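Any chance you'd type out a single protein's sequence alongside its tokenized fold?
>
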Amino acid sequence: MMSRRFAPQFPFLVLVLVILAAPLQAREADVRRFLPVGSVDVARLVPSPPAVGSADFEEEMAVVFWLQRTRTSEQVEFVRKTLDVQRFAPLLGEALLTVDGLELKHTIDSAIDEVRAEYDAIKADYDLPRPFVVNQDVHPVGDARPVASYPSGHAIRAIVYARLLGAIFPDRQDALLHLAHQIGYGRVIAGVHYPADVLVGQRLGSAYADIIVTQPAFRNAVELIRGTRPPMRREP
């Protein structure tokens, strides 16, 4: 089942999307650290994926082929969408007008950059080829780059986006997480990941988010975003 769609009823949404899409002004280097190195037990959370050609791997590939045969035009449209803060904006609606949108974007993007650096190293270690690389009968849609497959970066980032936004807008967290899980599952529908990529990615994304939301840098940023903390004075 695909995530609920937001039917825009207010012109404010156009303004919000413009703010979230706009590049940030140049600013001093951010020295905050949202995800300390070694803070997540990767060895426990990320087992080795099934070896290409093994029975377990063939089961994974069978799911990819089944979803390829049964995917709908609506699902194809869903999986083609870009994953960024904007993807979640319709679920937040007018609440986005109550916070500092530029600070929100900077905080979330900075945390995601650190998450990406962490999981890129994991993906490189396993270097599992994508389904469409292993078998040319897989016809991918959306973001289909022939880079390491395991675990799914989209699945990781979707959960982190949802959890961090949920920490800022707690009354929207269930809807945000629902969308995040659908984004992860969509990567298998798209033929660009195996089910294990997504399931492990979602587990890892949750672990990353558990750490990030407890960091003083993130808690301070949330106060700035909500306007409950005076902005830090910068030296001239």
